[in-house]
Design brief:
Rossmann fold; 2 domains; 11 helices; 7 strands; about 45% helix; globular
Length: about 300
Amino acid sequence: MIQRVVRGRCDDGYPNNFFAWLGCGSLFHEELLSSEAEESSMPLLQGKTGIVFGVANKRSIAWAIAQALAREGMRLAFTYQGERLKANVEELCAAMPDSLILPCDVTVDAEVEAVFKEVGEKLGGLNALVHSVAFAPREDMEKDFVETSREGFKIAHDISAYSLVCLTRAALPLFEKSGGGAVLAMTYYGSEKAVLGYNVMGVAKASLEASVRYLAANLGPRNVRVNAISAGPVNTLAARGVKGFTDMLKHHAERAPLRRNVELEEIANAALFLLSPMSAGITGEVMFVDGGYNIIGL
């Protein structure tokens, strides 16, 4: 906008120079303010589309992220696994009448393909993908890590880590149709440090974070960005499956520099940033949204 002003001319015909600019500055200033007002009134993600995996109920991180994206104008598709969660997702999405709701088991390739086929038919292209999916058998979460079963290890990695790869691959044609896209995964500090009770899920999250980096390196030339958020503990359905979670919340609030736990809205706002053009130069990163807990030593 400044470039347009500098090259303009005043109404009285003076050429573009400093004095002429001073003489008609009020007119240019009004034009500038008007243009900025129009731009600021337009939602950040107007006309964009996205898909969210992992909404279970109103306390889900995925739902908080979806609300932030929808608030900025993004049209969304949601998936659910099983009839038990279908009713929850449908009830939540009633507030988003133009949303798309589809069944999907991320361990079944045919279902993944069917989801993106329908998303392509109904939404056209795709600009964003939110991966907030994780699972490990309860018995493998509760026992000592050394006792992790082979099957439990495979399940945790298949659902919590490999699913990011298969979902991103399936979304690629729709990203390319939109000129590029952004993928966001959810992780936790237990991927870096041994957290009591997190066990096999911590190892699966380490795999997820490595996958974020490799996908980012692989897909950057195709204008697809891949990042993750490492959120502090929040009281979600998945978190309740972690042994000693209540103690974890208390410890985090006592030790984090901000001396509190993070809110869902804070995580959602960070996600909005990473899935929007504001973060266009960022990929392959794990952003901590944990009140600073990760920087503390003793």
